[in-house]
Specification:
alpha/beta; Rossmann fold; 7-stranded mixed beta sheet; globular
Length: 256
């Protein structure tokens, strides 16, 4: 159909103009999963660390004190410009940025000692290809950590989650179930070390405002929530204002 854009352009359109909002976002700039990633980086003390789909750069800022160099990769030039500015303000002169697709990282084979990604993979066009290229650039034995929203797994809950995510943000691809993540990681050449589960309360108003979701889609989300079966309403703890609780997971793996 004429006028349609590829996913990469849609992602840039969605996130580039909202770079400042993601840098400032309380949901993205804190949380137990971010602390968990930083702890893994502190333990690894990598010479070269990679932040896949860096967004507002919060993973990069968290791991920079423990790494010789951090490479933040993202599709959005505007997002990376905001990361560069923020890193400069924080005095993180070891942080550099690269505009790239996570399926084709601009790094050599076995050139990275630690990789991390947080709340990005649900936008990736091909999770399997991205994980394979991440494995390619990691040296054998290196640690990688991935954290993202995850599907609860059952068809009823999965359908509800994917629907509201897509209505809010048309660049959404999929929140994968934990079992899907584990299978993809193992197929890409990683050995699973730990799965960390957590839940995140999503406040509807800032969630919508951050993505500047149009009013008609906001109404559609609220309509789906209002008509959600009891099982979905209970699992996601849907509030009167549209706020809900999201399932998330972190995966620590080792390159084999």
């Amino acid at each position: 159909m004429a006028g349609k854009k590829p996913l990469s352009a849609l992602i840039d359109d969605q996130f580039g103009p909202r770079a400042a909002a993601y840098v400032a976002s309380a949901v993205h700039s804190s949380g137990p999963d971010l602390a968990w990633i930083a702890e893994r980086a502190e333990r690894a003390r990598p010479q070269v660390a990679l932040d896949l789909g860096s967004g507002g750069g919060h993973v990069s800022y968290a791991i920079a004190p423990y790494a010789g160099r951090v490479v933040a990769c993202d599709l959005s030039e505007q997002m990376l410009a905001a990361v560069t500015e923020t890193a400069r303000a924080k005095g993180l002169d070891t942080l550099e940025t690269r505009v790239c697709d996570v399926r084709a990282l601009p790094l050599g084979d076995a050139s990275v000692d630690f990789a991390a990604s947080r709340f990005s993979a649900h936008h990736w066009q091909d999770l399997d290809a991205a994980l394979r290229d991440c494995r390619r650039v990691l040296r054998p034995g290196a640690t990688a950590v991935f954290a993202d929203a995850v599907s609860p797994g059952t068809p009823l809950l999965d359908t509800h989650l994917q629907a509201i995510e897509l209505l809010r943000d048309p660049s959404h691809v999929r929140d994968y179930a934990i079992e899907e993540w584990v299978a993809a990681l193992q197929a890409a050449g990683f050995a699973l070390q730990e799965v960390k589960r957590f839940r995140l309360r999503i406040d509807f108003k800032p969630w919508i405002e951050r993505m500047q979701t149009p009013p008609d889609r906001q109404r559609a989300i609220r309509s789906l929530q209002a008509q959600a079966p009891q099982e979905a309403a209970t699992h996601f703890d849907i509030g009167e204002d549209g706020s809900y609780t999201l399932d998330c997971a972190g995966f620590e793996v080792r390159a084999v």
